[in-house]
Automatic annotation (TrEMBL):
<dbReference type="InterPro" id="IPR029028">
    <property type="entry name" value="Alpha/beta_knot_MTases"/>
</dbReference>
<dbReference type="GO" id="GO:0008173">
    <property type="term" value="F:RNA methyltransferase activity"/>
</dbReference>
<comment type="similarity">
    <text>Belongs to the class IV-like SAM-binding methyltransferase superfamily. RNA methyltransferase TrmH family.</text>
</comment>
<dbReference type="GO" id="GO:0006396">
    <property type="term" value="P:RNA processing"/>
</dbReference>
<dbReference type="InterPro" id="IPR029064">
    <property type="entry name" value="Ribosomal_eL30-like_sf"/>
</dbReference>
<keyword id="KW-0489">Methyltransferase</keyword>
<dbReference type="InterPro" id="IPR029026">
    <property type="entry name" value="tRNA_m1G_MTases_N"/>
</dbReference>
<feature type="domain" description="RNA 2-O ribose methyltransferase substrate binding">
    <location>
        <begin position="34"/>
        <end position="107"/>
    </location>
</feature>
<dbReference type="GO" id="GO:0032259">
    <property type="term" value="P:methylation"/>
</dbReference>
<dbReference type="GO" id="GO:0003723">
    <property type="term" value="F:RNA binding"/>
</dbReference>
<dbReference type="InterPro" id="IPR013123">
    <property type="entry name" value="SpoU_subst-bd"/>
</dbReference>
<dbReference type="InterPro" id="IPR053888">
    <property type="entry name" value="MRM3-like_sub_bind"/>
</dbReference>
<keyword id="KW-0808">Transferase</keyword>
<dbReference type="InterPro" id="IPR001537">
    <property type="entry name" value="SpoU_MeTrfase"/>
</dbReference>
<dbReference type="Pfam" id="PF00588">
    <property type="entry name" value="SpoU_methylase"/>
</dbReference>
<dbReference type="InterPro" id="IPR051259">
    <property type="entry name" value="rRNA_Methyltransferase"/>
</dbReference>
<protein>
    <recommendedName>
        <fullName>RNA 2-O ribose methyltransferase substrate binding domain-containing protein</fullName>
    </recommendedName>
</protein>
Length: 266
């Protein structure tokens, strides 16, 4: 483990560079993002992701377990002042430890190559918490990954990273144009299904155990006509109560776990 000098000032050039990662344009330009909190930092260090640097206050620098993980992962360790941590943190109550993580380089072909190939296609989602929760559900349900359309919020947005609860380090998340990859999925024998509250077919009637790509849109605007045009089938989640619909993350989760149930218990 490389140990950098303690940084006291929020005006330090390295601190300014790390703080820029709160903005999408800098995350895209540098291929890096920031994670906050001991749990996420530990999960990142234990994953196959490349953790470049762990930034910690004095309290966390005394944590031998965390420092050992950082050493094993080959991450640099930099102790910082509380003022520096406050500049880097986007949460209201900073935990005193963060890490700069390199984005995973995942190609869309990875999603096609998986024998199960159960993929959520996020179309026009704007709520980072919803997107992060979808990534978490994909992980929990043993699905393949997530394809992020160009009009969807950044999966590395701080709120999305927190909502994913570590799943972002494990689940293949690919930014790609659905108009390019949905036809390729169909040509590979994968069924493309769009989730819509107005669909005639229930998810309990559709074939969704495997080799299915599920298009999920935003609550407000739904799925774009451009993306929906590639679907083989529209499906809905039956509602027994008075609610008209579920939010995107909840809806995707229901379908993902129904798919898992069929693969594992049918």
């Amino acid at each position: 483990m490389r140990i950098g000098s303690r940084i006291e000032s929020p005006q330090n050039p390295r601190v300014k560079a790390w703080a820029k990662l709160s903005e999408r344009k800098w995350r895209d330009a540098e291929g890096r993002y920031l994670v906050e909190g001991a749990k996420l930092v530990r999960e990142a260090l234990l994953s196959e992701c490349r953790v470049e640097v762990v930034v910690a206050t004095e309290r966390w620098s005394a944590d031998e377990s965390l420092r050992s993980l950082a050493a094993s992962a080959g991450a640099e360790w930099v102790e910082v002042s509380e003022r520096v941590m406050e500049k880097l943190a986007v949460t209201e109550t900073p935990q005193g430890v963060a890490a700069v993580v390199r984005k995973r380089d995942v190609e869309p072909e990875t999603l096609l190559a998986d024998p199960v190939s159960v993929v959520v296609v996020a179309d026009r989602l704007q709520d980072p918490g919803n997107l992060g929760a979808i990534v978490r559900s994909v992980d929990a349900a043993g699905a393949t990954g997530v394809l992020i359309g160009p009009d969807t919020v950044d999966p590395y947005h701080p709120k999305a990273v927190r909502a994913a609860a570590g799943a972002l380090f494990r689940v293949p998340v690919v930014g790609a144009d659905p108009a390019v990859w949905l036809p390729k999925a169909r040509a590979s024998g994968i069924r493309v299904v769009v989730l819509s509250p107005r669909a005639q077919t229930s998810i309990y009637e559709a074939e969704i155990a495997e080799k299915v790509w599920l298009i999920v849109g935003s609550e407000g605007r739904g799925v774009s006509e451009r993306t929906a045009a590639f679907a083989d089938l529209s499906v809905r989640i039956p509602m027994a109560g008075s609610a008209e619909s579920l939010n995107a993350a909840m809806a995707a989760t229901v379908v993902l776990f129904e798919s898992m149930r069929r693969r594992m218990f049918s």
